[in-house]
Every structure is written in C-alpha cells, then in structure tokens.
Write a structure and sequence with these properties.
Elements: E1 5-9, H1 18-28, E2 32-33, H2 41-46, E3 53-56, H3 72-87, E4 91-95, H4 106-116, E5 120-123, H5 126-132, E6 140-141, H6 157-163, E7 171-176, H7 185-193, E8 200-205, H8 211-224, E9 229-232, H9 238-247, E10 250-252, H10 262-269, E11 274-277, H11 283-287, E12 291-294, H12 301-311, H13 315-326, H14 330-341
Parallel strand pairs: 1-2, 1-3, 3-4, 4-5, 5-6, 7-8, 7-10, 8-9, 10-11, 11-12
Length: 369
C-alpha cells in the first residue's frame, strides 16, 4: 500500500523560506516529506508505491533553463513527467503563485493551461482564485503563511535607522525584494521624487534580477539627484532583513502586476503596513486595515498615496498588520494542504476553504519577493 508521502517541487528556495516553512509544518503534523525528489520518469516510476502527492509551486523551474531559455525537449519532458505521474495514480497539486511566469513566453501559457486542466490548483486568496482562469478541478483557497520567527528580529527602530543613517523623525518608505521590471520600482522612484516632503525617505533594498536592471535603476536615481533616496542593490542576508523592516514606516510594493506576494506577508510579519496596488491578493489587505491601496491604472495614484502616507501615523496600521500575520500560522495551513492532498489518516486535515468555481478571466503575471 502507498504511504502518505509528499514530493515537493521545489523543496526549498534560496531567497524565500515559504517552502521550508510549509513542509516543516506538514512534517510536524505527521506527513512524510521526500526531501530529494526528482521530476524525472525514473524517479516517478521508482516511487509510485511510496509517494502519494507531487506538489508543484513554480513549474517553470523545471522546463526553463537558468537564463530563462526554453527548449522543445525540456517542455516535452516536463509534460511527459506530469502525464506519467497522473497515469500512475499520483495526485498532482499546484500552488499557483503567479498567474504566468515573469517575462512569460507563449510556451509558458501552454504549460500553465496544461496544468490548470490536469492538476489540483491552490490559490492564496479569492482574488487569486478568480484570476487563475478555468480549471478542470475547483481551486482550493489556502492562505500564504507568515514569516514570524524565521528572520532575526532583535533591533529597535532607532538601532535599525542608525544602521541606515536615517533620522528618528523621518517618514521612511522601504521597497524590499528582488528588483525586476514587473515590480515597478522605477515607477516608485519617479512617484516618490514628485513628493517634495523633505522629511520623507525611500530605501530600496534587494538584489537586481540582472545587471541591466541594476544599471537602469541606478541611472534613474543618479539623474534625479534626490538625496532622500537610498539604494541597497544586493542580496540581503537573513540577519539584515530586520534592519530594513524595523527602520520603515511603510513597505511599498509598486507592482505592475501580481497574483500573490511573499514580500507583502514578510512586511505584515514585521508589523509593517503596506502601500500596494489593488491587484491580486494585495487588494484584500486594505480592507483588513493593513495597507494604503491605489489603482495602478490611474496616473499619479501612487504619488498621491505616498503623500497620504507622509501625513498619517502608521502605528495602528502596523498593529493590524501584525495581527493579520499572526492569524496565518503554518499549523493551520498544513492541515488545509493535507485535506487537499487527501491524506486523511496522516494529518488532522481541516482548514481549507471549500473550492468554488473560478471565473474565466485570463492574462497577467507577477509574484513574490
């Protein structure tokens, strides 16, 4: 008889502890996690009696090359692997973090279409569910868990600001995460520059996706000659993450398109409110008192929201942000996933919202930290 084992793809990520936290919680709840799973015909065949579930997160990792290139051979191999797993009785679950991969190509649309009609999809919120598009099976809604306790969090606000050469009286906006075109960091810099408040500061921290992204942003900042701007364009190690969040009043996520955002959950985990567009799961945070939101389709909307942030006290918003994060514990999320996996005997599987019909809306993209 097959054991209740789960094969995650991927098991861990360098820049985001999401998978580590999810599978740790599932293991603590009694599920068996295959830490060395491979998405290959031989592995799938050998483990057909031991593994019950293949769990995909970012499927493009398994058919795109390291520089984003896609070959027919890799696409055919990926589709064959999934088809073989299904034919052998595996349950294939796909958590849809992005509506489409970043810098999507035509083949990405095909792969995502194929997965929507062959796997059990999971969305992090109702808005994300409705944007996934038509699916063979009803998507389940399981929220993104918090990052509380993962990163060191010992610095005071004053100590964090001293590390960044910021004054206690400054109103500090932080944009944190990998710098990529879809994240709208250049739009944020221009909007911020138009707000002339001398007490306002903008700190941008994160590793650029490419040298070209770094050069483009550095050139814009240089041309504006605004000494209220700080750039920290590098990988931020875990022990430094707290510096940027503890120094901030607001965390700004100026995405041009997004479905779900790990950076948003990271901000809430540090008790920091957001400035965010009404897109994907971010649109729900303003109604929970965690964000100042804006319509990204309206010219000047981000600029006006920054002006609002400069005027108000963010303390209450920050308290609500932390409470929202605390409610999203991984134990509850593990039980919800166990229910989707169908592992009734292995885990106390309660907590997933019953699936509902998704709308037929397509197109878009974006994601995470």
């Amino acid at each position: 008889m097959r054991r209740a084992a789960i094969a995650p793809f991927p098991r861990t990520l360098r820049d985001n502890p999401y998978c580590d936290l999810l599978y740790r919680a599932l293991a603590e709840a009694g599920a068996k996690i295959e830490d060395a799973a491979e998405l290959s015909p031989s592995w799938i065949w050998r483990n057909r009696r031991e593994v019950a579930v293949l769990h995909l997160h970012w499927p493009e990792f398994y058919y795109r090359g390291t520089n984003g290139t896609v070959t027919v051979r890799d696409v055919v191999a990926f589709v064959f692997d999934i088809a073989l797993a299904l034919a052998l009785g595996y349950r294939v679950v796909w958590t849809v973090h992005n509506q489409l991969p970043h810098e999507a190509q035509r083949v990405d649309r095909f792969i995502y279409w194929f997965l929507r009609y062959t796997t059990q999809t999971v969305a992090h919120c109702a808005a994300a569910r409705d944007l996934i598009g038509p699916t063979r099976r009803e998507p389940a809604i399981i929220p993104h868990g918090h990052y509380i306790g993962w990163y060191p969090d010992t610095l005071s606000r004053e100590a964090a600001r001293a590390r960044l050469d910021l004054e206690r009286s400054n109103k500090v906006l932080v944009c944190f995460g990998q710098v990529r075109a879809y994240k709208g960091v250049e739009d944020l810099v221009h909007a911020f520059h138009k707000v002339s408040d001398p007490n306002l500061r903008l700190v941008i921290a994160g590793r650029p996706a490419s040298t070209a992204d770094a050069r483009a942003l550095e050139e814009i900042v240089r041309s504006l000659d605004d000494n209220r701007l700080q750039l920290h364009l590098r990988y931020i190690p875990d022990d430094e993450v707290q510096v940027f969040f503890r120094a901030s009043d607001f965390v700004v996520l100026p995405y041009r398109n997004v479905l779900t955002s790990g950076a948003a959950m990271l901000a809430l985990s540090f008790g920091r409110p957001l400035i965010a567009p009404r897109l994907g799961c971010l649109r729900e945070l303003a109604s929970q008192g965690c964000a100042l939101d804006y319509d990204p389709q309206i010219p000047g909307a981000l600029e006006e929201t920054i002006r609002t942030a400069a005027r108000i006290n963010a303390t209450l918003l920050g308290q609500r942000s932390r409470k929202t994060a605390e409610a999203l514990g991984w134990e509850r999320i593990a039980r919800a996933y166990a229910r989707v996996y169908g592992l009734r005997g292995a885990v106390n599987n309660q907590g997933a919202e019953p699936p509902r019909r998704a709308s037929a809306q397509l197109d878009g993209g974006g994601s995470l930290t």
